[in-house]
TrEMBL record:
<dbReference type="GO" id="GO:0000287">
    <property type="term" value="F:magnesium ion binding"/>
</dbReference>
<protein>
    <recommendedName>
        <fullName>Alpha-D-phosphohexomutase alpha/beta/alpha domain-containing protein</fullName>
    </recommendedName>
</protein>
<dbReference type="InterPro" id="IPR016066">
    <property type="entry name" value="A-D-PHexomutase_CS"/>
</dbReference>
<comment type="similarity">
    <text>Belongs to the phosphohexose mutase family.</text>
</comment>
<dbReference type="InterPro" id="IPR005844">
    <property type="entry name" value="A-D-PHexomutase_a/b/a-I"/>
</dbReference>
<dbReference type="InterPro" id="IPR016055">
    <property type="entry name" value="A-D-PHexomutase_a/b/a-I/II/III"/>
</dbReference>
<feature type="region of interest" description="Disordered">
    <location>
        <begin position="1"/>
        <end position="33"/>
    </location>
</feature>
<feature type="domain" description="Alpha-D-phosphohexomutase alpha/beta/alpha">
    <location>
        <begin position="3"/>
        <end position="50"/>
    </location>
</feature>
<dbReference type="Pfam" id="PF02878">
    <property type="entry name" value="PGM_PMM_I"/>
</dbReference>
<dbReference type="GO" id="GO:0005975">
    <property type="term" value="P:carbohydrate metabolic process"/>
</dbReference>
<dbReference type="GO" id="GO:0016868">
    <property type="term" value="F:intramolecular phosphotransferase activity"/>
</dbReference>
Amino acid sequence: TGRKTGLADGIVITPSHNPPGDGGFKYNPPNGGPASGTITNWIQAKANELLQNNLQLIKRFSFKKALAAATTHQHD
């Protein structure tokens, strides 16, 4: 049982006070628990692919445009 709607997944990027070698990226699925190995392996492979291609496939746009997007929601 438990909540079935209004759930969201999230990305956690370690704070800047960590040394660069200790920096990290963590994905949390909608259930709030840790992501499975299958998911984290996919994320790792995709990130490495993007890096190998010098991030050319990354779409960039302004912060202002991101805030105005229908998919962006602020939460405090």
